[in-house]
Amino acid sequence: MHATSAPARRLATYWKIEAGNIVFLPAVAIYIVHRSAGTISAALVLSCLACSFLLVIGTIVLRMMLRKARGEAGATTARIPLLLRLRWPALALCVAAAVALGMECFDAGPQLSAQFLAPAALLLLAVLEYINYYHIQLQHFDHAPDWRRLMSGQGFRPSHLAREIERWKRTQRPRA
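^ that's the sequence the OP posted. Answer follows.
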């Protein structure tokens, strides 16, 4: 693809949005909890960390895909090992945030308050980001062909990162 192709232009915008959300989304959640007289709980902190960590991964993936769309040699091979190493800490952060949120709900009972909803929303976003990057492409609303494919009943497809990981694994296998 050419550096000014439609996918390259979209990716050049997407990675910047993803990077900005690393700080923006947790900051908004903390602000909302603080403004509603809530406390900065372990569940909120861990959910912020999980969400931000997955958004960092997303930023790396989108930058990698931008480099690939621009035709840069080795655009994916250098990042795949890093992204594979980040997978387990991302899952661990999501599990820790879920446990902390569960404990908070058990102690105080689930409440429709910013104290509960902010970490729950960030945790949900983190889990969806994990699935969207490492397993299946959930995001279909931003690109018409993807949306048409989904609406036609063809269902979800493996994520771009999942496909790149499979390609990378095939090249890493020793040939007999």
